[in-house]
Design goal:
Radius of gyration: 17 Å
Distance between the termini: 53 Å
Number of helices: 9
Strand content: 5-15%
Largest sheet: 3 strands, parallel
Strand order of the largest sheet: 1-3-2
Shape: globular
Helix content: 40-55%
Order of helices and strands: HHEHEEHHHEHEHEH
Length: about 190
């Protein structure tokens, strides 16, 4: 019964134009601490082929793929009686016993954040201690950008905590999407040289 309830509540059936705009970007890689299929559904709506995995999947045959999304805490499509206790982080006990830092994907996450020119966190909070520890250890605050809900009394503490890790933009997902749209109208890709 629990699995049915979780699947009903975390399987997204519709998305907004903001989700679609964000999915149009050719991100190097997408990591998410969410279980849901929002990004996958947005990509499906624009016929963008992606590979969706969880942190329990081995990166060896996947890391070279373009358009890869890694669900750090588990992926709703993979939820079963077996994965509920092994690769789906749902309770404080599962967070305590299964560390992303010790997963095979953690190496690639560290490498990605070191090598990225900019790192965008959309709707992220620091409650995921594994990610917070990696961000602090890598000292990459000059290239981290946090898009969070618009400022209000409830988000003031979150803004303060996140400011240690990078620049805070309390504009919300919709305003971030509009900014992407504006920039996309005039953006010219820089040719890469090898």
């Amino acid at each position: 019964i629990l699995i049915d309830i979780l699947k009903r509540n975390y399987t997204v059936k519709s998305i907004t134009s903001s989700h679609i705009n964000i999915s149009k970007i050719q991100w190097k890689r997408v990591y998410t601490t969410n279980y849901d299929n929002t990004y996958e559904l947005a990509c499906k709506n624009i016929n963008k082929k992606i590979t969706s995995v969880s942190a329990s999947d081995s990166p060896s045959n996947l890391i070279a793929k373009n358009d890869l999304i890694i669900h750090i805490n588990g992926k709703i499509e993979n939820l079963s009686t077996e994965t509920l206790d092994t690769s789906f982080k749902l309770t404080s006990g599962s967070y305590a016993s299964d560390s992303f830092e010790s997963s095979k994907w953690a190496f690639h996450f560290r490498s990605d954040v070191r090598n990225a020119a900019a790192i965008f966190f959309v709707g992220y909070s620091l409650y995921d201690l594994d990610i917070a520890r990696i961000l602090m250890a890598e000292k990459i605050d000059e290239k981290c950008i946090f898009i969070i809900a618009p400022s209000c009394e409830e988000t003031a503490l979150e803004e303060l905590e996140l400011s240690t890790y990078g620049a805070i933009y309390p504009i919300g997902v919709d305003a971030f999407s509009k900014k992407i749209e504006e920039i996309s109208e005039t953006y010219q890709a820089i040719e890469e040289y090898t």
